[in-house]
């Protein structure tokens, strides 16, 4: 297996923790003043901007209540000067909503001194909104 460059190694630790359900492992990689954003319609409850670790914890609480991930796959890691780009694929549904989503996303991490200071997700928001409305 190829060794990941510095920022990609941090990104890989984040996704490994996510896939293992290690929420404390995720929090350990985040800067206390992190800006965490899911770009999209505020109609879907977890979309929006979360500032600071307490807000990110609130984000994960919301996601845990409404989102059921059936599969999640990291497709690629790309090292950048300021962090990493991570392409992912996710399939799931929202609790109480029958329509599934099957989306790809680009997740942008800005990393300083081994800590994630900014995390932003761009994804097929129309599928997410449709699944939420169903």
Automatic annotation (TrEMBL):
InterPro entries: NTF2-like_dom_sf, SnoaL-like. Residues 12-118 form the SnoaL-like domain. It holds the Pfam family SnoaL_2. It comes from the Bacteria. This is SnoaL-like domain-containing protein. It comes from Microbulbifer agarilyticus. The lineage of its organism: Bacteria, Pseudomonadati, Pseudomonadota, Gammaproteobacteria, Cellvibrionales.
